[in-house]
UniProtKB/TrEMBL annotation:
Tagged with keyword Manganese: yes
Span of domain Exostosin GT47: 102-387
Organism: Oryzias melastigma
Protein name: Exostosin glycosyltransferase 1a
Domain of life per record: Eukaryota
Domain Glycosyl transferase: 471-720
Record's keyword annotation contains Membrane: yes
GO terms classed as biological process: heparan sulfate proteoglycan biosynthetic process; ossification
Length: 737
C-alpha cells in the first residue's frame, strides 16, 4: 500500500509539471530570445496572459494590439484596413463650406463622357438631380458635385462594373481629392467576403451608400440609403398598401419571411437558423436553396423540404397579410425586403447587426420598425407577440408615412439625400426631428421659409395652437378699372366688411396704368394695390412679404361673394388649415378611350379641385409653389395664362394626400361668373378648356402620379335649409341669396 501511494504521488507530481510546462507556468528560454513579447504564435514559453495565439483565427483586428488593451468603437473603426483615405472625415474637416456661401446649396452634375455607359438606375439618379431645384449647369456656382461615372455597382463580377474608375476619376479637373463630392453606391465588394471597398480611393468625398455598416459609416458625413431594385420608379411611386386601419391591428400571420438561404459564406448563419422559429402557422419563415448555378453542389439535408414548402406560398399574399415582416441580412447588410415591408404596411423586424439604417440621421426608426439582434433570433417571436396592439397600429401607420415621404420613388431617395446634406451646410436653417418624422415630411417643409413649426399649416394640432384668426384677401385684376359699378368694386367692399379681414391686396396685372387712389372705394379694412411681377398670372402666388396673416383668400376680379359667405368659408378653413377651402369645384377623371386624364367642370356628386378664384389656403403654399415647383411648369402656366389654379391644387393634394374642402355656394355663382364681360370669353373659349386638359396631363407627368383625390364632402352651416326660424341661423344670408 505504501509503495502504491508513493507511485501515485510521483505520477500526480509529474502530470502537474507537464501541465505547468504546457500552459506557461514554467518559462524555458529559447535560443537566446529573452523577451517573450517578440515571440509569435502559441509556444510552451508564452505567458499565461497572452492568449492571442488561440484567438487569432477568430479576430484579425487584434493582431497588433495587446489582448487586454481597451479598444473603443472609434479606435476599432480606425484600425481597420483603410477603405479610403478620408476615414475620419466629418463636414467640419473635409467639406469646403465657402463654395456654398455665395449661391447657396447648388448641385453640379458632370457632363457624361463619350463612350461611358450608365445603368438605368444611375441615369435616373442624375435625371432626378438635374430636374430638382438644386441643380446648376455652372460648376462655378456649385456647392456639391456628382460624378457622371456610374459608381452604383462595384461588384467586379457584375456586368455593370466600370473598369479603371480610379484613373478616370483622378483625371477630372474638379475632383480636388473628392472634396464636396458625393458618390452613390448600392453594391460593393464581391464573393466571398463582400467588403465595402469600392475599388478606388474616394478621398474626401461623401458616400451615399446602401448596406453600409456602422463600423464604416462616418456620422454627419456619409448618408445611408436603402437598397432598391432596378425597377424602382424614378418619380411618383405607388402609395402604401394600407387602405384603412383595422382594430385590433392583427393579420393572418404574425411574422413572415420568404427569401434565399445561403448554404456557405457570409450572411448564411442567420438565414440558415430561421427554421428553428418557423411553425407553419402564424410564424412562416421560408427559405430556398435553389439559387445560383451550382446550388446542388452545396445542398444540405434540409434543402428539398425547404424548397417544397417555399413554393407553396405566394410572397405578395404573405406580405399583405402579416403583422410583422422579418428583414434578415443577405450577403450584404441591406435587403430588398426592407422597402417591400414598408410599402406593405408590414412592420419590419430588422435582423442585420451593424447595419446603419437608411437615413438614420433624420428618421427615428424605433417608431416604424422593430430592431432585433441576430444573436437572439429565438426570442424574436415572443418579442413581437408582446407588442401592444396600440403600438402595432402606430408602427404600421408610420411605415406608410415614411414609405410615401422618402422611399417610394428614386427621386425622393435622391432628394432626401440632398436635403440632409443641405441641412448640414445650412445648419442655422435645418429641419427639426418633428419635421422629418411627421406629416407631410421634410421634403415639403422647407426650412428656408421658417424653422418655426407654428409658421407651417401642418403642426397646429401637435403644438396645441390655432392659425391667426384673420385673413389677407388678394384680388387678381387684369381688367382696367373704368366704372365704379364693376363687380370687383362690390367684391372689394364685401370682403373688407368681413370681421376676419385684416387686409385687402389688389394685385394689378393689367396693362393699363394703376388707377388713382380716389378711384378705390373707402373700406373698413386697409387696401393696398401692388403691381404684379412681369404681369404674369403666377404672380398671384408669389410669397409677398406684405401678407401678415396665415390665411390667404384668393379671388378673381369677377368673383361674386357676400360678406357672410366669406365669413363662413374662413370659419371652415380654420378647422382645415392645411387644405384649400372654397367655392367653385372641379373634377378630374381618367379617359380610357384617349388613355389620358380629363378635366370637367360639370356639377357632379364629387370633386377633386377647388379653384383659387374663390378659395382660402395657408400662405406657405405661395412659397412652396414658387420654390418647390420646377420653373418649366410655372413658365408653361405663364405662357398660357391658364391652369395656375389646377397646379396649386396638384401641389396641395400632393403635400397633404387629402382632397380640398368645398363649402356651400349660391347656385347662381356659375351663371353669374359666366355673365361677366371681363372673362366671359375666357371661360367659354374652347381653347381655354383644351389647355386645361393638356395641363392635367403635363402636371401628372411631372408629379409622376395623379395626386388629386376625389371627395363627396361639402361643408354647410348648421341649420342650413332646416325648417326653423331664419333668426336662429348664424349664416342666414347664404340662404337668401
Amino acid at each position: 500500500m505504501q509503495a502504491k501511494k508513493r507511485y501515485l504521488i510521483l505520477f500526480s507530481a509529474g502530470a502537474s509539471l507537464i501541465l505547468l510546462f504546457c500552459f506557461g507556468g514554467i518559462q524555458v528560454p529559447l535560443s537566446g530570445r529573452r523577451d517573450d513579447q517578440s515571440l509569435t504564435g502559441y509556444h510552451p514559453g508564452a505567458r499565461w496572459r497572452r492568449l492571442q495565439g488561440y484567438l487569432r483565427a477568430f479576430s484579425t483586428w487584434e493582431k497588433d494590439h495587446d489582448f487586454h488593451e481597451h479598444i473603443s468603437p472609434r479606435q476599432k473603426r480606425d484600425s481597420n484596413s483603410g477603405l479610403y483615405t478620408g476615414r475620419r472625415c466629418r463636414m467640419e474637416s473635409c467639406f469646403d463650406f465657402s463654395l456654398c456661401e455665395k449661391n447657396g446649396f447648388k448641385v453640379y452634375v458632370y457632363p457624361q463622357q463619350k463612350g461611358e455607359k450608365l445603368s438605368e438606375s444611375y441615369q435616373n439618379i442624375l435625371s432626378s438631380i438635374e430636374g430638382s431645384r438644386f441643380y446648376t449647369p455652372d460648376p462655378a456656382q456649385a456647392c456639391l458635385f456628382v460624378l457622371s461615372l456610374d459608381t452604383l455597382d462595384r461588384d467586379q463580377l457584375s456586368p455593370q462594373y466600370v473598369h479603371n474608375l480610379k484613373a478616370k476619376i483622378q483625371s477630372l479637373p474638379l475632383w480636388n481629392e473628392g472634396r464636396n463630392h458625393i458618390i452613390f453606391n448600392l453594391y460593393s465588394g464581391t464573393w466571398p467576403d463582400y467588403t465595402e471597398d469600392l475599388g478606388f480611393d474616394i478621398g474626401f468625398a461623401m458616400l451615399a451608400k446602401a448596406s453600409i455598416s456602422t463600423e464604416n459609416f462616418r456620422p454627419n458625413f456619409d448618408v445611408s440609403i436603402p437598397l432598391f431594385s432596378k425597377d424602382h420608379p424614378r418619380t411618383g411611386g405607388d402609395r402604401g398598401f394600407l387602405k384603412h386601419n383595422t382594430i385590433p391591428p392583427y393579420r393572418k400571420y404574425m411574422l413572415v419571411f420568404k427569401g434565399k438561404r445561403y448554404l456557405t459564406g457570409i450572411g448564411s448563419d442567420t438565414r440558415n437558423a430561421l427554421y428553428h422559429v418557423h411553425n407553419s402557422e402564424d410564424v412562416v419563415l421560408l427559405t430556398t436553396c435553389k439559387h445560383g448555378k451550382d446550388w446542388q453542389k452545396h445542398k444540405d439535408a434540409r434543402c428539398d423540404k425547404d424548397n417544397a414548402e417555399y413554393d407553396k406560398y405566394d410572397y405578395r399574399e404573405m406580405l399583405y397579410n402579416s403583422t410583422f415582416c422579418l428583414v434578415p441580412r443577405g450577403r450584404r447588410l441591406g435587403s430588398f425586403r426592407f422597402l417591400e415591408a414598408l410599402q406593405a404596411a408590414c412592420v419590419p423586424v430588422m435582423l442585420s447587426n451593424g447595419w446603419e439604417l437608411p437615413f438614420s440621421e433624420i428618421i427615428n426608426w424605433n417608431t416604424a420598425a422593430v430592431i432585433g439582434d441576430e444573436r437572439l433570433l429565438l426570442q424574436i417571436p415572443s418579442t413581437v407577440r408582446s407588442i401592444h396592439q396600440d403600438k402595432i397600429l402606430s408602427l404600421r401607420q408610420q411605415t406608410q408615412f415614411l414609405w410615401e415621404a422618402y422611399f417610394n420613388s428614386l427621386e425622393k431617395i435622391v432628394l432626401t439625400t440632398l436635403e440632409i446634406i443641405q441641412d448640414r451646410v445650412l445648419l442655422h436653417a435645418s429641419r427639426s426631428s418633428l419635421m422629418w418624422n411627421s406629416l407631410p415630411g421634410g421634403l415639403f417643409t422647407l426650412p428656408q421659409y421658417s424653422t418655426n413649426l407654428g409658421d407651417f399649416p401642418f403642426y397646429y394640432a401637435k403644438l396645441g395652437t390655432k392659425p391667426y384668426p384673420k385673413f389677407t384677401a388678394i384680388i387678381h385684376m387684369v381688367t382696367p378699372l373704368v366704372s365704379q359699378s364693376q363687380p370687383v368694386m362690390k367684391l372689394l367692399v364685401a370682403v373688407a366688411k368681413s370681421q376676419y379681414c385684416a387686409q385687402v391686396i389688389v394685385l394689378w396685372n393689367s396693362d393699363k396704368p394703376l388707377p388713382a387712389k380716389h378711384r378705390w372705394p373707402v373700406t373698413s379694412a386697409p387696401v393696398s394695390v401692388i403691381e404684379g411681377e412681369s404681369k404674369v398670372i403666377n404672380s398671384r402666388f408669389l410669397p409677398y412679404n406684405t401678407i401678415p396673416t396665415d390665411a390667404v383668400l384668393s379671388l378673381d376680379e369677377d368673383t361674386v361673394l357676400s360678406t357672410t359667405e366669406v365669413d363662413f368659408a374662413f370659419t371652415v378653413w380654420q378647422s382645415f388649415p392645411d387644405r384649400i377651402v372654397g367655392y367653385p369645384a372641379r373634377s378630374h377623371f381618367w379617359d380610357s378611350n384617349k388613355e389620358r386624364w380629363g378635366y370637367t367642370s360639370k356639377w357632379t356628386n364629387d370633386y377633386s379641385m377647388v379653384l383659387t378664384g374663390a378659395a382660402i389656403y395657408h400662405k406657405y403654399y405661395h412659397y412652396l409653389y414658387t420654390t418647390y415647383l420646377p420653373a418649366s411648369l410655372r413658365t408653361m402656366v405663364d405662357q398660357m395664362s391658364n391652369c395656375e389654379d389646377i397646379l396649386m391644387n396638384f401641389l396641395v393634394s400632393s403635400v397633404t394626400k387629402l382632397p380640398p374642402v368645398k363649402v356651400t355656394q349660391k347656385k347662381q355663382y356659375k351663371e353669374t361668373m359666366m355673365g361677366q364681360s371681363s372673362r366671359a370669353s375666357r371661360w367659354a373659349d374652347p381653347d381655354h378648356f383644351a389647355q386645361r386638359q393638356t395641363c392635367m396631363n403635363k402636371f401628372a407627368n411631372w408629379f409622376g402620379t395623379m395626386p388629386l383625390i376625389h371627395s363627396q364632402m361639402r361643408m354647410d352651416p348648421v341649420l342650413f335649409k332646416d325648417q326653423v326660424s331664419i333668426l336662429r341661423k348664424k349664416y342666414r344670408d347664404i340662404e337668401r341669396l
